[in-house]
Task: inverse folding
């Protein structure tokens, strides 16, 4: 019953609320005369009709859902309000005719309004209480700072989640295990049954109606698509607050175990405190379906087919994923997944433990992922996310799929240098890249040439480079196949591919006002199927070549031998421009352009040099061309 991480689920629109007879009812809890139902762990249901004050309640229905004697939960006169202990003649543990809608209506993660900021002092107090010799004394100490029933439940919840660890040794060796509340308190460890029994007794002492529930869960060891048979494998609780029942799981609220099930780590999880029943059902299936607290209830088959959402899926503000089945099949070698979210969120993925064979794009309210497995069979797909505001570089797993691949699309084999996500997005806009000419992640070119433009802030300096599998492009050569042109706030990246294939165009930036290392921002995938493509690199530029300069001729960095080559360069603020080959050839200024001709006979390299200041005698190299072998 322990979790490796909690899971939930979501669908689209809610159904209307209905009462126990299937009739439509308003959302607010029932008033005046109230039908109230109790369930024991043995599965007996007792419905009691509650009349206004000074009238006698009447036991009007008793239905048996299982064997075993009917019993009352242990309740004590400990709630600070002087209420007498409850008895059958007054009421029992109760549910009202309120039933949350399923699927989840996206309104709240909780089943009642909870302001976590108002709990901060109470939470801090509860964590400091250190009593392990008596359950009664522990509850008495915790209740000193708790006024309402909700605060009492909160104090008990926080204490258990931070002081009781999962008993891995006891789980493997039942002879060393006890789930009795006093033993759990003294040892400071137990399994889910012990967590739930301690929680139930502490609530009982505090005068809070509480039930220990049992059933199946999608926790540690759960495999997508598995069926649930036999005895239940997990225990949790329900508490009665503000006129209706609420669900919580202090075992999963306390922490997680590692993959080998040898180590427990305290890692508090707020999600499992008063979880909305339409979310709780996705990884907790009670033996008695009434304790789903849903109308209509889900079948075990529904539960088995539900998506495996992690609790982090909802805690990060994610809303839904598509498809809503956990096992998906490829069509012509491709499977697609998308996630909807409320706010800006970063995503990544793993297919069989590697972030490859996929193309993920960020959207304003989510992401889209196309998967192209390169082997047939079953593949585990994990989706990870983190909020954009997170200072940590830690992505949390939020959901999992199994991808069944029937055929492979070899054409969609991506370069290993491709980073996820691919293409421009709201994230690249925040980095200053506005109005991209190519909003899609893949650029197709037939002749091996393409051009990408953006609007860009003036303080941003850009570095772009081309990458390809194999040794055809070293780092410096990759940069030489991309040429930048800046015209005011417009940036153009001209790309000439050295051959056919799949390439990655990576874009890095830094602030001009704060020179340092360039930081990676995003990348494109560029594809070319034309095997006749063979473009030479652009000329090599040096540090004196300014962003606003532009090469009009010759664009190719490889010049023909023994030829007159015409040069036309757009440069400003320069006193003189020379082209150095076997001989020196000055260029003539015509407004912002410098033009002239150079002969390539007898040389292997040609340099463009500038004389920045007429009062200085030295020239600086700004461009270098190679000359073809003779």
Result:
């Amino acid at each position: 019953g322990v979790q490796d991480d909690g899971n939930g689920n979501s669908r689209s629109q809610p159904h209307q609320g209905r009462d126990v007879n299937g009739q439509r009812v308003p959302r607010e809890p029932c008033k005046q005369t109230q039908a109230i139902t109790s369930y024991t762990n043995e599965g007996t249901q007792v419905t009691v009709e509650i009349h206004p004050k000074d009238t006698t309640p009447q036991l009007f229905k008793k239905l048996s859902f299982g064997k075993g004697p009917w019993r009352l939960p242990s309740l004590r006169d400990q709630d600070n309000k002087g209420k007498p202990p409850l008895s059958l003649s007054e009421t029992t543990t109760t549910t009202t005719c309120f039933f949350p809608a399923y699927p989840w209506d996206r309104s709240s993660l909780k089943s009642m309004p909870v302001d976590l900021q108002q709990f901060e002092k109470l939470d801090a107090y509860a964590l400091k209480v250190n009593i392990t010799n008596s359950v009664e004394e522990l509850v008495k100490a915790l209740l000193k700072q708790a006024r309402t029933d909700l605060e009492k439940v909160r104090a008990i919840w926080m204490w258990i989640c931070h002081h009781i660890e999962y008993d891995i040794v006891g789980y493997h060796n039942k002879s060393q295990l006890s789930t009795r509340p006093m033993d759990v308190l003294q040892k400071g460890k137990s399994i889910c049954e012990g967590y739930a029994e301690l929680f139930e007794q502490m609530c009982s002492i505090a005068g809070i109606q509480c039930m220990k529930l049992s059933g199946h869960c999608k926790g540690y060891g759960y495999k997508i698509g598995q069926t649930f048979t036999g005895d239940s494998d997990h225990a949790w609780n329900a508490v009665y607050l503000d006129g209706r029942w609420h669900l919580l799981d202090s075992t999963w609220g306390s922490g997680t175990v590692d993959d080998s099930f040898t180590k427990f780590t305290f890692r508090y999880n707020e999600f499992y405190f008063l979880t909305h029943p339409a979310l709780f059902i996705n990884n907790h299936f009670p033996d008695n379906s009434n304790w789903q607290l849903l109308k209509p209830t889900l079948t075990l088959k529904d539960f088995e087919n539900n998506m495996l959402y992690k609790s982090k899926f909802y805690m990060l503000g994610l809303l839904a994923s598509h498809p809503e089945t956990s096992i998906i099949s490829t069509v012509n070698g491709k499977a697609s997944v998308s996630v909807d979210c409320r706010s800006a969120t970063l995503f990544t993925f793993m297919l069989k433990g590697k972030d490859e064979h996929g193309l993920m794009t960020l959207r304003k309210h989510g992401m889209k992922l196309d998967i192209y497995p390169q082997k047939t069979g079953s593949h585990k797909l994990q989706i990870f996310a983190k909020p954009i505001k997170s200072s940590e570089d830690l992505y949390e797993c939020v959901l999992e799929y199994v991808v069944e691949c029937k055929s492979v699309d070899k054409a969609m084999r991506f370069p290993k240098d491709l980073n996820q996500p691919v293409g421009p997005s709201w994230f690249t806009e925040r980095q200053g890249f506005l109005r991209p000419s190519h909003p899609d992640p893949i650029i197709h070119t037939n002749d091996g040439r393409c051009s990408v433009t953006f609007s860009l802030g003036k303080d941003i300096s850009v570095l772009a480079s081309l990458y390809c599998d194999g040794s055809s492009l070293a780092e410096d050569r990759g940069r030489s196949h991309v040429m930048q042109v800046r015209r005011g706030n417009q940036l153009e990246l001209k790309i000439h591919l050295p051959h056919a294939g799949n390439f990655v165009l990576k874009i890095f930036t830094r602030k001009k006002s704060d020179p340092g290392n360039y930081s990676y921002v995003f990348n494109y995938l560029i594809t070319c199927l034309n095997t006749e493509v063979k473009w030479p690199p652009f000329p090599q530029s040096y540090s004196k070549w300014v962003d606003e300069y532009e090469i009009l001729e010759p664009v190719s960095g490889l010049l023909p031998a023994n030829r007159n080559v015409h040069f036309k360069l757009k440069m400003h603020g320069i006193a003189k421009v020379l082209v150095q080959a076997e001989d020196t050839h000055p260029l003539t200024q015509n407004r912002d352009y410098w033009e002239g001709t150079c002969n390539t006979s007898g040389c292997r390299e040609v340099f463009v040099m500038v004389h920045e200041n007429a009062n200085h005698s030295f020239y600086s190299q700004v461009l270098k061309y190679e000359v073809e072998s003779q």
Q: What stands out?
A: The chain has twelve helices and 39 strands.
